[in-house]
């Protein structure tokens, strides 16, 4: 179970493929204040960007000491403590960024404070666990659907890691009858991301998501495939809640409410009452599949949460060592 | 992380839909001895069967005290400690067995010893974690393909639970081009179980798995769909190993080796090098997708392991209480 230290003053970095959002604070309300946050374009020169990030936090640190930094990063990343590449972005096709050490230089640059590091989606999930719609739930999934599709979350109170980390955007799904769209994933063509990411919608409909009319078939396919994917996630992980963040869920002219309504209906139709739980039957599903409570701040709040979690882990280790020495 | 107490003398019940396998012992070698095990047909009268099970263990208990009993059960089951139906088989269509309390009467009938309770597949997975091919791995999946398809295992050292428990047999998969077989799942038709369980093979080929010639297209479909399903599980849970048990993997005239070879190849083709890990690339996959080391005893050994695990949990609680009282 995650020991919560939600009171600590920490830094957070939402390290995205487009921009790095940096913030300091104790809680979601802090990151809303402009003086507590900034953004840098990700660009193709990690060394330069990391220097700018360190400078920004060092200035904050000079006013009030930071207990830790949390980094919620785009991936793939190496999360295996003890691995020589722990804390690195690994095999990304993003120019300049393959094999980039994020944790090392940031930790050294800020006086060797604890650094929490995880995927962007595990980070956002942890933010929702600390302060949002996953509060009190030790098994949940946080999905983001935007430029790509990714998912993270917790199983039995632990963030989802493993051989590497989940890559749920690349789930293979049944094709909806009549849908001939080949998909856009460079690895798999018609995996979930290949069929449902923002770029997939743009390619399918010839227009960005926000401009697609509500009755356009693109929305039917989009919500049906998301329904298949969530049903598969339910069968594999048995989460207690599924949170969908990212830009696509806002669904332009269709609207967020109608989008969630359609997704929930498709999940129920797909599972066909097989998984018996009040959360999945009837109206229960309205509280089961939900948007993030932290909205567009889920990512950067999650980074703060990763920092606070790292402090708890460090503290727990110290306590154990004291116990042994005692 | 699971605290291991592999030295305790315990009872184990592999509660299957066809038979209940009961055993006592400390380790896999014990359950091979005929005097340490027995089997009862499951039938449609749970009360009667449970009495026979209690009598058998009571006789064993009179010779050497059992530290605990573990029950690895067919499902769906209620695993939520604190739920009024904890320890029950819940909504099974199996005649006589819906809403059957397994843990309560067995615990009371054997002097209120600790009872560990989990799904058959989490049990078998725990057995492989204690004594088999999941040894030392805190993230793995154990799949059984036989009369049905189910899967369990661990995420970060904890058995997979959640809203209910995984039901991976009901994953939805892309259809292989040219395959028109409608599937046999009464809930979903062509989910994984509907396409690949023993009864599905029988229906598809018109003959049981063990009699299908090695070059029959049924094997191509079987291994391809299993490949899709495992690829989806890899993307969702990121296990460090995948163990396939159950009868279908023996693959009759095709043979177990050729079956695993084809499945591994399909998993690699499906993932297409997207998940970068030595376990999934090249020959690494031969150690990644494997049969259970405990073979057909994985289930009953897993039940013993569940009993031993329950003792560890009980002990840990006692220690915590002592610490508080101190």
Could you walk me through the main structural features you see in this protein, from its secondary elements to its overall organization?
- The structure is a homodimer of 326-residue chains.
- With 326 residues, chain A is an alpha/beta fold.
- Chain A has 2 domains: 10-120, ATPase, nucleotide binding domain (Nucleotidyltransferase, domain 5, 2-Layer Sandwich), CATH 3.30.420; 133-291, Nucleotidyltransferase, domain 5 (2-Layer Sandwich).
- Chain A has helices at 28-31, 46-63, 103-109, 120-131, 192-196, 198-205, 217-237, 256-271, 285-288, 298-325, and strands at 10-15, 19-25, 37-41, 69-73, 88-89, 100-101, 115-119, 140-145, 149-155, 158-159, 242-245, 289-290.
- In chain A, the strands form 3 sheets. Chain A has a 5-stranded mixed beta sheet. In chain A, strands 10-9-8-11-12 form a 5-stranded mixed beta sheet, sandwiched between helices.
- In chain A, α7 crosses α8 (256-271).
């Amino acid at each position: 179970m995650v020991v919560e230290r939600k009171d600590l003053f920490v830094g957070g970095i939402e390290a995205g493929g487009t921009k790095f959002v940096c913030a300091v604070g104790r809680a979601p309300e802090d990151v809303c204040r402009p003086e507590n946050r900034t953004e840098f374009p990700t660009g193709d020169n990690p060394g330069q960007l990391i220097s700018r990030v360190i400078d920004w936090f060092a200035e904050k640190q000079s006013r009030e000491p930071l207990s830790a930094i949390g980094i919620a990063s785009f991936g793939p990343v190496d999360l295996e403590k003890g691995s020589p590449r722990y804390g690195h972005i690994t095999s990304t096709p993003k120019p300049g960024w393959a094999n980039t050490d994020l944790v090392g230089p940031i930790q050294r640059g800020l006086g060797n404070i604890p650094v929490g590091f995880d995927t962007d989606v595990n980070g956002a999930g942890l933010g929702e666990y600390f302060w949002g719609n996953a509060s009190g739930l030790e098994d949940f999934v946080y999905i983001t659907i935007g430029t790509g599709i990714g998912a993270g979350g917790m199983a039995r109170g632990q963030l989802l890691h493993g051989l590497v980390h989940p890559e749920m955007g690349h789930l293979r799904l049944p094709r909806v009858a009549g849908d001939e769209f080949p998909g856009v994933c460079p690895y798999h063509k018609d995996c979930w991301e290949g069929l449902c990411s923002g770029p997939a919608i743009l390619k399918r409909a010839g227009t960005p998501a926000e401009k697609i009319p509500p009755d356009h078939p693109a929305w039917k396919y989009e919500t049906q495939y998301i329904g298949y994917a969530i049903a598969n996630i339910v069968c594999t992980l048995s989460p207690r809640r599924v949170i969908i963040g990212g830009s696509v869920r806002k669904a332009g002219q269709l609207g967020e409410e109608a989008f969630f309504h359609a997704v929930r209906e498709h999940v129920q139709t797909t599972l066909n009452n097989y998984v018996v739980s009040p959360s999945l039957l009837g109206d229960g599903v309205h509280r089961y599949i939900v948007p993030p409570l932290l909205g567009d701040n889920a990512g950067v709040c999650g980074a703060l949460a990763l920092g606070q979690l790292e402090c708890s882990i460090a503290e727990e280790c110290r306590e154990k060592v004291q116990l042994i020495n005692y």
